[in-house]
Structures are given as C-alpha cells and as structure tokens.
Amino acid sequence: MAGVKPGDVVYDLGSGDGRIIVTAAKEFGARSVGIEVNPLWVWWTRLRIGVLGLRDHVEVIRGNFFREHLGEADVVTLYLLQGTNDRLRRKLEKELKPGARVVTHVYTFKGWRPLTVDNESEIYLYKIGDHRDPAYR
Ligand SMILES: C[S@@+](CC[C@H](N)C(=O)[O-])C[C@H]1O[C@@H](n2cnc3c(N)ncnc32)[C@H](O)[C@@H]1O
C-alpha cells in the first residue's frame, strides 16, 4: 500500500515479533528499522534477522519510539492504540520529511486525511505534506 521500493527506509514503531521489518526487507528490498520496548520481542526479532541473513538490511532498536528520531524514514508503519497515535501525531509531523508515508492499522490520526483506505483490513495510508484534513479544526 505504501509502494515500498528498494532503497526505502521503513520504520515499524512497536515492531513486535518483527514481521513487518523482515517482510519490508525480504520482499520489497527496503532497509528497515523496528523500535520495540519489549525485550523478549527484541531478542526474538534479532534471532529471526540472523537466521534469515538479513543483518545488513534490518535492525531492531530496543527502546521507546518516543525517544528515537524518525527523520530518515520513508515509510512508517504502526499498529498501536488510538491514544498512542494521538501522542505520536505531532512528532511524526515534526520529524518526517515531506513525501514520507505513514501506514496505520485500525487506529487513525485525528485531523489527517488518508490518501488510501483499505476498509476490509482497516489500513490507512497518509502522505506527509498532503496529510492535513482541511475540514478539521
Ligand atoms: C500490536 S503490536 C504491533 C506489532 C507489529 N508492529 C505488527 O504490526 O505486527 C504493538 C507493539 O508496540 C510495542 N510498543 C508499544 N508502545 C511502545 C513504545 N512506546 N515504544 C516501543 N514499542 C512500543 C508493544 O510492545 C507491541 O509489541
């Protein structure tokens, strides 16, 4: 949905078991970064990255994504909670470059207008620079 292509940098905020960052590298040729607070998931993801031989393409940072700078991302993916998306909104607007794509599952961004919606899977695609909903105050 985000049109990820080789050379893109994909960040998954709260990368869980690492499936998104692994898929971004393996199937779409991206360099990918996961940020995950749960050490068990970080351990599991690093194991997976090693077994799949993806160490040059995928990394997972153990920590809080609110404390990491996101400016190099071409694509950011999220499957969090509504309250977390609300708190992330300004950080994404401040740090992401124009044209960066934000893909979120289930929970949206208030005041933003998605470019594309997959209603069946509840996936929303936004593009920074073209993301504000003029109807929202
Ligand atoms: C629903 S899972 C999504 C996993 C993965 N992104 C996916 O779509 O398969 C949300 C993950 O976000 C992590 N998380 C929540 N808040 C976080 C934070 N502030 N910093 C880093 N990770 C966080 C949780 O530990 C959990 O693994």
* Mean pLDDT across all amino acids: 97
Provide the spatial order of strands within the biggest beta sheet: 3-2-1-4-5-7-6
Total DSSP E strands: 7
Could you say what the CATH topology of the domain at 6-68 is called? Rossmann fold
Distance between the termini: 28 Å
Low-confidence stretches: none
Question: What portion of the residues fall into strands of 2 or more residues?
Answer: 15-25%
CATH superfamily of the domain at 6-68: Vaccinia Virus protein VP39
Unique bound compounds:
S-adenosylmethionine
CATH class of the domain at 6-68: Alpha Beta
Please give the largest β-sheet: 7 strands, mixed
What fraction, in percent, of the residue positions are helical?
25-40%
Order of helices and strands: EHEHEEHEEE
Shape: globular
List the helices and strands and how they pair.
Blueprint: E1 9-13, H1 19-28, E2 31-36, H2 39-51, E3 58-62, E4 75-78, H3 82-95, E5 101-105, E6 116-118, E7 123-127
Parallel strand pairs: 1-2, 1-4, 2-3, 4-5
Antiparallel strand pairs: 5-7, 6-7
Bound molecules: S-adenosylmethionine.
